[in-house]
Amino acid sequence: MNFPARYKADIVSAVESIDLEKVVEVIDLFKHARARRRNIFVCGGTRSASTASKVLCDMIACSSFERPVRFRIFALDDRAWKWDADGDTASSEKLFVEQVKNFAEPGDVVVGISASDKSASILRTFEYAACLGCKIVALTGLDGGKLAALANVAIPVGSTNFGTVEDTHVIICHMIGSYFLEFEGRSRGTGPAEATSIDEAHWQPARRA
C-alpha cells in the first residue's frame, strides 16, 4: 500500500471513530447557548486547529443570517500580541485565557480544538472557564488526556497521526456547522431558530457548484 492509500485509510478509520452522540451533545449545547444569548468561544491549539475553529465559527455565524435568534460565537485570536503594560510579549500559555477573561461569563461555552492533550494555552483556558462556570467542549486526539478531563463534552479522534486528527476535527466542525447552516435552516426556513430533530431521514447536504 502506498503512502496516499495509507493516509486515506487512516482518515477513514479516524472518521469512523467519531462518537456521533457526542456531536449531537455539542449541537444541543450550542442550541442552548443561542436560546439563552450565551457566548461561544472557540480556540485551536495549532495552525490547523485554528483553521478548524474558524470554519466552525464562520458556519455558525452564517446560520444566524435573517433569523430572529442569533449566535454569539467568536474565534479567539491565535496571533502573538503584546501586553499594554510593559511591552513584553505575552506567553503562549496565556494567549487564549486572557481573551476569555475579557468577555466570558458563567454559562458561556468554550470550545478547544487540539490534536495534543498537552496544549498549555487551551488547558489554561479550560481551567479558567471551569472555575467561572462555563460549559467546555474538547475536540482532541486519542483519549484527550487533561483536556478531555476538564470538558463537559469531549470528542476524541482515534488516530496517533496529528495530521489525521486535525483533518478529522475539520470534519467534526463541518458536521456541527452544517446542521445549523443547512439542515436546520432548510427545516425551519428563515423563521425562529427553534429546536429541531436532527434525525430527519431524507435530509441531504446541500450541493455546491
Strand order of the largest sheet: 2-1-3-4-5
Helical content band: 40-55%
Helix-strand topology string: HHEHEHEHEHEH
Quaternary structure annotation? single chain
The tally of helices reads 7
Structure description:
47% of the residues lie in helices and 13% in strands. It has a five-stranded parallel β-sheet with strand order 2-1-3-4-5, with helices on both faces. The radius of gyration is 17 Å and the shape is globular. It is an alpha/beta fold and 209 residues long.
List key phrases describing it:
209 residues, alpha/beta, five-stranded parallel β-sheet, 7 helices, 5 strands, 13% strand, globular
Provide a brief overview of the structure.
The chain is α/β, with parallel strands linked by helices. Helices cover 47% and strands 13% of the residues. The radius of gyration is 17 Å and the shape is globular.
What's the layout of helices and strands?
Layout: H1 3-16, H2 20-35, E1 39-44, H3 47-62, E2 72-75, H4 97-103, E3 109-113, H5 120-132, E4 135-141, H6 145-150, E5 153-157, H7 162-188
Parallel strand pairs: 1-2, 1-3, 3-4, 4-5
Helix pairs in contact: 1-7, 2-7, 3-7, 4-5
